Amino acid sequence: MIPTIGVLALQGDVREHVHALEAGGARAVGVRRPAELAAVDGLVLPGGESTTIDKLLRIFELRDLVRERIADGMPVYGSCAGMILLADRVLGGTSDQETLGGLDVTVRRNAFGRQVDSFETTLDVRGVDGGPVPATFIRAPWIEEAGADVEVLAAIPDDAPGAAAGRIVAVRQGALLATSFHPEITGDSRVHELFVTMVKE
Ligand SMILES: NC(=O)CC[C@H](N)C(=O)O
What total number of domains does the chain contain? Predict the structure, then answer.
């Protein structure tokens, strides 16, 4: 069965996720309205600006509905800003910033520095076969603390320079998947394949 996976289409790099999901074996649709959310088997929260997406979720009256679906066990994958939206706790957020929550982690926004500190690397990701995954970090968060039920899928190598060494950058907790980085812009769809598999389960 080919699952239908939504990409929250309020702000951020929606199209790239749609393409990566299709390459990963799903039918992908933009989600902007409650009826569209109701029709999907899983949801991607794209990269973008978490504060803006948070505000738009409320304006479009999707926030409570997405939270309900998360509580019901809908698989959700958040990349970058999407990871922030899934986190239960945020450091470095704006004073009125809220998240959807569900993932028992503390994230730090813009942890790697500013736009100019964006970078590309490759990372081993647990659950993804076939060698390291290209990973693009754009004003990315990292996970500062993860609860006991959170499975760490990838981290910055311990011998990396500076404060980034050893930081957690990909996690899974039940039906929730999150990465600090943007696999959707690399042309490598293996992380999306992992998510499609989670949705099929
Ligand atoms: N590339 C991204 O998604 C950046 C995330 C952004 N810095 C935020 O806090 O929402």
Answer: 1
